[in-house]
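Pinned message: reference record for histidine kinase
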Amino acid sequence: MSLRSRIVLAVAAVFATISLLTGWLMLNRAETSLRTAFDRAVQTRANWLLSLVSVDPVVVSLPAETEQMRVVYEAYGHKRELFRSPGFPDTLTSARRSYAPMYRVMTVQATREQIPDGRVSLTLAVPAQSLAQDIGQLRWLFGVGWLGSLLLACLGGYIVAGWLLTPIQNIVRQADQISNATSIDPIALPRSQDEIYQLTDSLNLMLARIRESAELQRNFFGAAAHELRTPLAVMKTGLEVTLNSGKAGEAIRPFLTGQLDEVSRLARLLDEFLTLSRPDTDTPTLRNDEIDIPHLVETCVAQLVTLTTDYGVYIKITGKTMGPSIRTDAIKLEHVLLNLMENAIKYAAPGSTIRVQTHYDTDWIIQVQNRTVRETGPTLDLLQPYFQADPLREGHGLGLWISHRLTRLIGGRLRLDWQTFTFISELALPVS
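Predicted structure (tokens):
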């Protein structure tokens, strides 16, 4: 539920509670006023009928057809009923209980000036249908008015909430336009010096810190890569010269070959860091090489034979070997494939076989599948930098993140799946 909706519901709930309580009190007072006015009219009618009563001789004015009346004369401790309408109850209490709520019952007594020798009381019951109709109409009007005012309050609250949240929506729109951490523009400050202004100012300070941190990280990657390229190039050249000179004995040749593979891997990692250290706003420089996918996969597998031996696993290529060649950056694609295969080798269950499957449909699909010790894991987190599924294993949690970034640069798609002790890295490469 949005913040705007919650504000409207809160306003509507408060308004409904207060208006209902206030309206109920006012409705009770209005109903009481109607009943009091009706009772006064009945009392006036009863006094008028009583004024026409005479004891000697007995003269009683008859009530209307819809009215019920009882006249009692009391003198010297004795009561005598002068008149009773058919069906009228014996006592006043019974009359009020029998006639309610169809009748309003009123009892009046004559004064001594009117009848000096005794006391005459007249009880009049008048139909209350008109009073009930008036009260019913009043309640209906109150209900309709309350519902109408509640709807108007909701509409007004929705409009006012939208107006109040406009600055926050502007902040959200400007924040959505931020595409990367190195090109963060400050959010425009609102004109009003209120809490929204303070929030925007705090967000701008936070975004500035994020931009500075991202720039420092990129500068570190670039500087470190540049500083390490020269010594690694010297080491790689020295190892290649030693191996090609024929002076290295057979006993140390495997060791030197392994060292050359590690130096090549570090050089490749530095090239990846240099690529990722460039700002996202810069258009990456991509080579346009024609690549035979099956041949490239075989080349990458051949480079990792020594690594598979070190980890005690096997690697096997399966799938179709026929399909069109693609044009993309061969170096970056080779880096991605080597990273995916290295990740599979390092995290595969000991003694298992890693399967690299290639097939062509509308795109080239390359799957790297390996058995794992764990049943499943968080695949989305694996695409984040410095995340390791197993912190006890060697590595820094950068391989899959780098592969994901490089895949996006060359226009491909990388999908990860980890279920039932099987981890699959699927790389899709468009032909065109």
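Pinned by admin. Summary line: The longest helix spans residues 195-245.
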